[in-house]
Amino acid sequence: MSAHAEAAHEHHHGPPAANQSSRVSPAVLGMLLFIASEAMLFGSFFAVLFFDRVVNPATTQWPPPPFEFPVFVAGVNTCILVTSSFTMHWAVQSIRKNDRAGLKAGLVLTILLGAAFLITQMVEYAHIGFNTSDGAFASTFFGLTGLHGAHVFIGLSLLTFAAIRSFRGHYSPEHYHGVEIPGIYWHFVDVMWIVVYTVVYLL
Amino acid sequence: MENPFRSEAAAFRFLLATIGAFALIVIGSAINPWLGLAVALVLSVGAVVLYWRQRGEGPARHRVVAEPHQTRILVVANETVEGAELLTAIQARAPGGAAEVYVVCPALNSKLRHWTSDEDGARGAAQSRLDRSLVRLGDAGLDARGEVGDADPVQAVEDALRVFGADEIVLSTHPEGRSHWLERGVVDAVRERFDVPLTHVVVDLERVS
């Protein structure tokens, strides 16, 4: 055995107080910081959108003629994404009741619905009739919906890992964090889409 | 309003509330744009007020109070946690068992398993080693408790120091050449990062066997 104490720390006296720097617990603080960073990221895109729609005197109509947003297709896509939240909720509730078939089915359905959303969005991009070079409104549109699409892709990746693990027999009613945390993320991706759809397409 | 980040069920309810709120905003806007704005403002203020009135008390805070003349030793080890050299080093710092020992076993995991949140196996193995170690320390007359820590040993030390104000850290590794922690400079990193005396104990499990 070779043991050597640190001479450099001879000035230390007594135990230091346990270090908790604020009244907020570390877990909640970490999540709040994550929300804040996401809010700032999306907020910067929404700021551009509102500037273009409200402040920019060149924009008298949204979207500027002759362009149009595919409100109906995006509405159907919204229904698909909201439905995927229900299947996600079903998956988590299933594993809480030790229903492994429900967990697997819920995760697979959620992944399929999420993939359908992304594919529909890509088809929408292909047929929308304008591109990023067609003005600030187009850049804003592709920026916001593309940013959200990237979040959907990340969520799908997380759910794929969770699904693979569920088929390998992981998770139990006592230990299902690996499903629950992607589930929370997925619901907030949906929440963000509700905001994006309402502000960009409907209002 | 329940914190929607605490559980999937709370996040799902938050989604339903969002759908309802934005449906009202859209209906209001269809009637009159200013009505839509008013609905949005009222709902936003209402949500904030509801949250502040229902958020309740925060989590209980634990104060660490050290017994006088009792040394507090933080032990960080993984595969070597059951080594005889480590036990000897701890006993040398706690004559007559006059020490409070907190053992942290980092749940070492492969990078792929870490990134896919597949930590159950690593945590289970670390927990088994920790349990056996605590029994052994208890048999030696030491007041010992512990936890499974973060896969990164330096992070595990930081996490442990937040709940256990240690007088000294005892960090155990395999000998040079067989220790990933030594190769990664974990001992030096702990020494530099924390203002707590550090003892490095080398446990040669191959020599014992």
Describe what this molecule looks like in 3D.
The complex is a heterodimer of chains A (203) and B (209). Chain A is an all-alpha fold and 203 residues long. Chain A has 5 helices and no strands. Chain A is elongated, with a radius of gyration of 23 Å. Chain A starts with 25 loop residues before the first helix and ends with a helix. In chain B, helix 3 links the parallel strand 1 and strand 2 (99-106). Helices cover 52% and strands 15% of the residues of chain B. Chain B is an alpha/beta fold and 209 residues long. Chain B folds into 2 domains: 8-54; 71-208, HUPs (Rossmann fold). The radius of gyration of chain B is 25 Å and the shape is elongated. The model of chain B has no long low-confidence stretch (mean pLDDT 83).
Oligomer: heterodimer
Q: Tell me the total number of β-strands of chain A.
A: 0
* CATH domain class name of chain A: Mainly Alpha
Q: How would you characterize the largest beta sheet of chain A?
A: none
Tell me which CATH architecture of the largest domain in chain B applies here. Answer: 3-Layer(aba) Sandwich
CATH topology of the largest domain in chain B: Rossmann fold
Q: How does CATH name the architecture of chain A?
A: Up-down Bundle
Rg over alpha carbons of chain B: 25 Å
With helices defined by DSSP (H or I, 4 residues minimum), what is the helix count of chain A?
5
Uncertain stretches of 5 or more adjacent residues of chain B: none
CATH fold node name of chain A: Four Helix Bundle (Hemerythrin (Met), subunit A)
The number of helical runs of chain B is 9
Distance between the termini of chain B: 58 Å
Residue share in helix of chain A: 55-70%
Strand content of chain A: under 5%
Q: How confident is the prediction overall: mean pLDDT of chain A?
A: 83
Class derived from helix and strand content of chain A: mainly alpha
Side by side, the strands of the main sheet of chain B go 3-2-1-4-5
Roughly how many Å is the radius of gyration of chain A? 23 Å
Helical/strand content category of chain B: alpha/beta
